[in-house]
Structure formats: C-alpha cells, structure tokens
Amino acid sequence: MSGPQIVLVGPMGVGKTTVGALLAERLDTGYRDTDADIVAAEGREISDIFFDDGEQHFRELERAAVRTALAEHSGVVALGGGAVLDQDTRELLAGLPVVYLSMEANEAVRRTGLGLARPLLAINPRQQWKLLMEERRSLYTEVARAVVPTDERAPEEVAEAVIEALDLGAAALPGTAPDADPSATSGKAPGKENHA
Q1: For residue 77, which of 146, 154, 141, 23 has the smallest C-alpha distance?
Q2: Rounded to an integer, what distance in angstroms lies between the CA atom of residue 2 and that of residue 150?
Q3: Interior CA angle at 101 toward 138 and 27, to 5°?
Q4: Tens digits of per-residue pLDDT, 50-89?
C-alpha cells in the first residue's frame, strides 16, 4: 500500500494529535503530524511563525510539509486545521483514506477554551471559530472518505470509529488479515454532510 493508512483532517482542537497517536498504536504503525514537522523544521512555534512572518508564509510551509508527509509516511498522518484551504493539498488527498474529525462550536469551547495559542482565534475566538468552520467545512467533507463526529466522545471512542469507518478493524488486531472483517462498514459516510 502506498501512502498513509489514515489521514486525519478537521478543525483545530478536534483531537487529531491524540486520536492519531491512538490509531498508530492500534494499527502498529507510525504517527506523523504536519504541524509538528513545521515546528521542528523552523525551530519555533506556529503562533510565532504567524505573528512574525504572516499566514501566507505559514501556508507555504504547510503545503510543503503536507506534500512531504503524504509522500514519505505510510502510517497515520494528521494535517493542520487549515491545510485543506490549499487546492494542491486537496488534490494530493484525492483517493487517500482521509477522515474528517468533526466538532461543533460548543465542543470546541469546552475542549480548548479557544485558547490564545491559536493565532487565528486571538480576537473573539468563538466567532472566529464559527467563521473558520463556515469557510472550511465543505473542504473537509470534499476530501474525506468518512466523517467521524467527536462531540462528547473520548479519544478512544473516536479512534475506534475511525477504524470502523475505514474498514480497518482486522488490521487493528494482531495476527489477522486486513480483509478478515468485511462487516465493519458502519462508519461509511455517504451522507457525511449530515455529520459536519
């Protein structure tokens, strides 16, 4: 299999990092976070890149980081919340096992407090989060093979739902063939827009 086993997309604070690490453990594979790749390469936090160099520069770094991760990594990859804004990135995601982790505004506030470490939410965070989601929701659903709502779910429950949505149930169990569980289809999302 070429490319990642799972690519996670979704808004900031949805839990892509936590869920991605759990998925990698369950599937006995590696985990990669493109935001972490950028921080490591630049030697500074994303908020500093935004404030020092502007969003456009960050998006250029992000585009390159996503391209590299998708080409090099065969495990679980989590993308930053705004990565789907880039048309080239969306084209790269076509045909890949992408899962959109969705979350409503109230859940975002509960989980993150919409904190100051997130540069796009520095002023009127709740309103900014809603505006960002209006801009991005259709892009998340465009690239996703499945949508997994995360509201009021523990990370372990979300990880299990992702595995079911992608029919990876057998792959998550040591010693079984990946195609041994044809019944794990409940997470398929032909009506995924209803979950966003």
Answers
A1: 23
A2: 28
A3: 135
A4: 999 999 999 999 999 999 999 999 999 999 999 999 999 9
Whose CA is closest to 130, among 114, 119, 149, 115? 114
Owner of token pair 């709740």: 126
> What is the value of pTM for the model shown?
0.80
- What separation, in Å, do the N-terminal and C-terminal C-alpha atoms of the chain show? 29
User: Which residues, other chains included, contact 103 with Cβ-Cβ below 8 Å and sequence gap of 6+?
Assistant: 10, 11, 13, 14, 15, 111, 149, 150, 151
**What is the rounded (10 degree) CA torsion for 36, 149, 153, 188?**
-100
**Span 83-99, pLDDT tens digits:** 999 999 999 999 999 99
Residue 110 burial class via C-beta count within 10 angstroms: exposed 0-12, middle 13-18, buried 19 and up = middle
- Bridge partners of residue 7, in order along the sequence: 77, 98
How far apart CA 179 and CA 147 sit, in angstroms, is 22
